[in-house]
Amino acid sequence: MLICGQEEKAADINAVIAGGASSILRTIHMTLAYWGFIMMSFHLGFHIRAISAKLKNRMNKAVRTFFTVLFLLIAIYGVYAFIKRGIGDYLLMKVLFAFFDFGESRVRFLLDYAAVMVLATEMAGRFFIDTCRQLPMQRCLHTSHRCCRALFAELLRISW
Strand, helix or coil at 12? Predict the structure, then answer.
């Protein structure tokens, strides 16, 4: 049951979508989905040190070294998968549609994206956290996290 006026709004939205906005909306949706994937991986990377610190006490040095090397090798493969899959083009809105090769193994597809996720996690966990530790300590207004403003200022300085 529609409330008075909703029927006209639904018709207006359908007219806009039918008028060509659907391809733009699809491209924006796809781009934001890829950015969400990268941001979730970064977020995991920000917390991975705390998770690994709890596990560190339960493992000997050889096992810790094995896992460190393993994740670094997966991250290196993630660079290859990032380029091979063209994820950068999706992030920069250069691709207007998603192409899926249905002849490709699903396992290979998932492993490639898992490797990209490990790459983003490692980047956040190693580069950003280490950079944050080297910057002068500041407090953000909205959280109790250390040096957020200094970290972002440093990242802007590096990128420019």
Answer: helix
